Each structure stands twice: as C-alpha cells, then as structure tokens.
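User: Before I run my own analysis I want an independent prediction to cross-check against. Here's the chain; please return only the structure tokens and, at the end, one sentence I can use as a sanity check.
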Amino acid sequence: MIKYREMTEADNAVVALLVRDNLKHFNLDIPGTVYFDKELDHLSDYYGNNERRYFVIEGDNGEVIGGIGFARFEPIKDTAELQKLYLSDTAKGSGLGYELIDFIEDRMREAGYKISYLETHDNLQAAIHIYEKKGYKEIERPKEVVHSTMNRFFRKEL
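Assistant: Structure tokens:
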C-alpha cells in the first residue's frame, strides 16, 4: 500500500541519497545540478509552507521509495516549479511517476498556482517521456535557471 506524506526532518538523509543516487546513475553527479546543492541535505528546512512543499511516498514496509515537491517560480506569474521527482529503483516502471505528477499538480492548484514549470536534462529520457505524456510542453530556457546543467524546460497549464 503506497502512502503519501509531507516530508519531515527525519526524511532528509534518505531523500538526499535518493536524489544523488538517481543523478549519479544518469551521469548527472556534476556541478550545475542539485547533486552539489548543500541544501539537499536539509530539504525539510526549505519546504513546508504554502509556497513550497515536498512529499515522500512510502512503500509497503514504510521505507521511502520516492518523492516530489514544488516551489513558487518567481519569474512567471502564478507558477510553481515541479521539483525533485525521484523514485527508488524498485519503484521505477510501476506508473508511480505519473501518479506523483497528478498528486503534486493537485497540491499546486490547492496552493493557487495556475502553471507548472519544470527543468530536466536530456539524460533523463524516461522522465521527459512521462512529462510529455502528462501534457507538459517544451519551452525555451528561462534566463533565471539556477541549475546551469539542466537543458530541457517544460510548462503546463494547471
């Protein structure tokens, strides 16, 4: 039974490891990605308010098998950035990525956002496939991009 819940401080280490393991697997353990963000080890300090939230998914035995979040994307009015959609290897291919996007888009709408924006990379072809199937359209790179290695940008009306 899959369970969604808001991230807590106790989840910081496991979520940071999940993100870094995924990035390393796709050769994105390089500068210009979230891999080296010092905040990655303390995500619960960043999320947890109306503008920024992060959720983890627990598997059958209570272990964290994935997560997804959002934060206000200031450059575009009424826009939230879909952030850090990552799954453990055991959860990949199960359709959970699609469920997570539906879940976080509902949270974005509840928070009053009208547009979802995201950044990704060519190396993450499975993720790009999911985003496109969920209705995200590719856009030009916004000048405000923080993670310089990211090279694909998408948006969707909520």
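Sanity check: The chain has a mean pLDDT of 92.
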